[in-house]
Sequence to fold (298 residues):
Amino acid sequence: MPTFSAHDGTKLAYHVFGDGPPVVCLPGGPTDSAYLGDLGGLSSHRQLIRLDLRGTGESATPEDTASYRCDRLVDDVEALREHLGLDRMDLLAHCAGANLAALYVNRHPENINKLALITPSVRAVGLTITGDLRLKTAQLRRNEPWFPEAFAALEEIVAGKATADSWNAIAPFSYGRWDEAAQAHQAAGDERMNPEIVAAFGAEGAFTPDATRTALARFAPPVLLLAGEADLGAPPHTMAEFADLFPNAELVVQLGAGHYPWLDDADWFVATTTAFLGHTPVVITPADSRGSALDETT
Fold:
């Protein structure tokens, strides 16, 4: 397992999978990168370099725990790029990792070749996902056997009456299929989550949305935003707003997918992401038209 030193001396770990041009992958959470796996087989086309954020996975715990804050993690991403010897890098970020990617764009836009944001969080750019939109998106799953209990829990959350049981009950909404594999993936993620790191990641001062949006508006390289049709955390309607913040962004919506689209339809996810990261433009056939999915959730 390779490591490198962050600018404050903290030893950080990263994991390398596959061959080909490298793609630096930032996990969400914030947590370690293990849950990304090989992103559904993307490593068959590109070399994936998954960073374990400081204090997670195989990376060391910093002396200054305030350095978990998202804006301070930008220095870790830059240290990794320097360690890898990349003049410009393709950057892929999932969920909360997209906040880190957006802040990296703000400070180091010249170091990015292409940017892929997978079901991204919107905290860094100050967008709002309303409770009504989450409830409407959830209705796409109304024929699932677990839906009544999960939807009732979601209504509690939207009404500000959430309990720990409420958050546990809505877990099926994060996956296109709530099968054994999804349940195991969810359980493993819960075990890895460190509440201290999560709280520090978004602590006061971490995000300056106006400045970040200004930086994104000037960011010329190609950007892919990939949304899951049924994802409550990153609904397609809000992802369209996110895409509009960039001058050169494309939104695609993976039908039937939740928050982890590489688990829901690996072949489609890999084909779409590879097409974007490579030299072939993303092509969506009429049978896979993503417009109708977006219309259903707006």
User: Anything to note?
Assistant: The CA atoms of residues 32 and 52 lie 5 Å apart. The first strand starts at residue 3 and ends at 5. DSSP finds twelve helices and eight strands in the chain. The two ends are 44 Å apart (CA to CA).
